[in-house]
Amino acid sequence: MFKIDPYHKEQAKKLNVLIQPSDKGYSKIDVFKDGKYVTSIGDTRYNDFISYYKNNGFHYAMERRKLYHQRHAKDNNIRGFYAKNILW
After folding, report:
1. Which pLDDT score is estimated for 30?
2. Considering only Cβ atoms within 10 Å of each terminal Cβ, which end of the chain, N or C, has fewer?
3. Cα 50 from Cα 12, distance rounded (Å)
4. Which pLDDT tens digit goes with each residue over 56-80?
5. Residue range 50-61, pLDDT digits in tens
């Protein structure tokens, strides 16, 4: 099961949502708004900003963040929105 970092909690708080580790397949986090399930985000088989930061340092993590945002620039769905704003 994915361990939620304080960074993820802080990002979720900014969006006024609650998060918890997901038990759905390879998903990292389940997102809840007003007590209702919204979506699952992330994939445990891939890194996110905090994973890169802890394993490779700030500058590498920032480069990966930049590349993630470029790849997902056209993601206009709810899952993409929360993934970009909570995980990255």
Report:
1. 98
2. N
3. 14
4. 999 999 999 999 999 999 888 999 9
5. 999 999 999 999
Strand partners, 40: 30
Size (the chain), residues: 88
pLDDT of residue 75: 83
Q: Which two tokens stand for residue 45?
A: 């088989």
**HEC sequence for 1-67:** CCCCCHHHHHHHHHCCCEEEECCCCCEEEEEEECCEEEEEEEECCCCCHHHHHHHHCHHHHHHHHHH
Neighbour-count burial of 38, counting CB atoms closer than 10 A to its CB (0-12 exposed, 13-18 middle, 19+ buried) = middle
Mean pLDDT score of the chain, rounded to an integer? 96
* Residue 48 in tokens: 């996110």
